[in-house]
Amino acid sequence: METVLAVIGLFVLRLGVPIVVMVLLSWGVSAYVQREEARALEAEKREALARAVAEAAVPQACWDVKGCSAEDKADCPAVRRPDLPCWLAKQLAVGRLSPACEACPMYQRSLAAARA
Measured between alpha carbons, how far is 18 from 38 in angstroms, rounded to an integer? Predict the structure, then answer.
C-alpha cells in the first residue's frame, strides 16, 4: 500500500509541478504583454496629440486672427501661453473647453488631425 501511494505521489509530482509552473509562467507572460500593449497605446495617443498640437500651431496668433480687443486679450489664457494653440492654453488654464472653442475652426482642424 505504501508503495502504491509513493508511486501515485511521484506521478503527481512528476506531472503536477510542471503543469503548475507552466500555468504560472503563462499568466505572468500574459500580464506582461497586456502592460506593454497598454504602454504602447498610451504612447501612440501622446504622439497623436503632439501631432495635433504641432499641426494646430499657426504662424499668426488666434487673437490676431479673431481681432480680439485689448480687454479680451487681458483675460485670455492663450495670450499668456503663446507657445500653445489657443484652445489648449484655455483648456489647461480653465480645465475645460468653452463652446466657442469647440466651434472654432482652429480647434476643429486640430481635432480632425488627432483623429486621423
Answer: 30
Residues whose CB is less than 8 angstroms from the CB of residue 77 and which lie 6 or more positions away in sequence, other chains included: 89, 90, 92, 93, 94
Per the CB < 8 A criterion, the answer to whether 101 and 88 are in contact is no
Note the pTM of the prediction, 2 decimals. Answer: 0.46
Q: Could you read off the pLDDT of 72-112 as tens digits, one per residue?
A: 888 888 888 888 888 888 888 888 888 888 888 778 877 77
Alpha carbon distance 63, 86 (integer Å)? 9
Q: Tell me which residue range forms the domain holding 74.
A: 2-115
Residue at 42: amino acid letter: E
The number of distinct structural domains making up the chain is: 1
